Automatic annotation (TrEMBL):
Organism field: Leptospira vanthielii serovar Holland str. Waz Holland = ATCC 700522
Highest taxon of source: Bacteria
GO molecular function: efflux transmembrane transporter activity
Gene3D superfamilies: Outer membrane efflux proteins (OEP) (1.20.1600.10)
Protein name, entry field: Outer membrane efflux protein
SUPFAM superfamilies assigned: Outer membrane efflux proteins (OEP)
C-alpha cells in the first residue's frame, strides 16, 4: 500500500502547481485585465451569451410561427413523353388477338397551382402572434436583467479588488516594514531589560495578527480578481491555446 502511495505521489508531482506559480499567473492576469478593461468585456460572459442566444432564438421562432399562418402556394409543371403503340393486345372474353391501333396519343404537358390555406391557424393567428410577442419580450427582459446583474457584479468586484489591492500595497510599503523594525527594537529592548517578557509576547502576538490580516486582505484581492475574470470569461486564454 505504501509503495502504491509513493508511486502515485511521484506520478502526480510533475502536475502539481506551486503557490508561486499561482500568484505569478494571477499577477499576470491582473496586469492584463487593467490594460484591456472596458464595458464591452461583459459581452464575453457565458451568462450574457446564454441570455442573448435565448432572445435571438425567441425572435426567430416568432418569425417562423408567423410565416406558418400564411397560405402555402405551390406552382408545378410536368411533362411526360408517350411511346408509340401501333398494336394493342385485345384480351376479350372470347379470344386473344393482336389488334391494330393506328391512333397516336401525344405527349402530356401539365401545369397548375396548389394553394393550401391553414384555416385553423389563420383564425388563431392574432392570439398566436400575441403569445410569441410576449415570449420575445420576456427573453429580451431577461437579457437586460442579466446584463444589469453582470454590470453590478463586475463593478462591485472591481471596487472590492481595488480596495484590497490598495490595502495590500499599504501593508507592503508601510505597515509590514514598520512592524519588522518594531520587532527588532522590541527584541533588543527585552535583551537590555528595558521591557518585560509579557510585553514582548504581547507585541509578537499583535504582529502575528497583523500578518494574518495582511494575508486575508491579499486573499480577498485575488478572489475579487477571479470573480472579475469569471464574469468577463477571461480566466483561461481563448482559441484553445492553453494546455489541456
Amino acid at each position: 500500500m505504501s509503495c502504491l502511495f509513493c508511486y502515485l505521489s511521484d506520478l502526480l508531482i510533475p502536475f502539481l502547481i506551486s503557490e508561486e506559480e499561482i500568484l505569478k499567473y494571477l499577477k499576470g492576469k491582473e496586469d492584463e485585465f487593467i490594460k484591456s478593461y472596458s464595458d464591452e468585456l461583459i459581452r464575453n460572459s457565458p451568462y450574457f451569451k446564454y441570455a442573448e442566444v435565448n432572445a435571438e432564438k425567441a425572435e426567430a421562432e416568432a418569425k417562423k410561427e408567423e410565416l406558418l399562418h400564411y397560405p402555402e402556394t405551390e406552382v408545378f409543371i410536368s411533362y411526360m413523353q408517350r411511346r408509340r403503340k401501333p398494336f394493342l393486345l385485345d384480351s376479350g372474353p372470347l379470344n386473344v388477338s393482336v389488334m391494330d391501333n393506328p391512333e397516336f396519343s401525344g405527349d402530356l404537358w401539365s401545369a397548375g397551382i396548389t394553394l393550401r390555406i391553414p384555416v385553423w391557424s389563420l383564425g388563431k393567428s392574432a392570439d398566436l402572434n400575441r403569445a410569441n410577442l410576449l415570449k420575445v419580450q420576456r427573453m429580451q427582459l431577461e437579457k437586460r436583467k442579466q446584463t444589469h446583474l453582470l454590470e453590478t457584479e463586475l463593478k462591485t468586484s472591481i471596487q472590492t479588488w481595488m480596495g484590497n489591492k490598495q490595502r495590500v500595497e499599504n501593508f507592503q510599503s508601510s505597515l509590514l516594514p514598520t512592524l519588522s523594525r518594531s520587532i527588532t527594537t522590541s527584541t533588543s529592548a527585552y535583551t537590555k531589560g528595558d521591557i518585560s517578557l509579557a510585553d514582548t509576547y504581547q507585541f509578537l502576538n499583535e504582529s502575528i495578527e497583523m500578518k494574518a490580516t495582511f494575508h486575508e486582505v491579499n486573499l480577498n484581492r485575488w478572489l475579487s480578481l477571479l470573480k472579475m475574470l469569471e464574469i468577463t470569461n477571461s480566466i483561461l486564454p481563448e482559441e484553445d491555446s492553453y494546455e489541456k
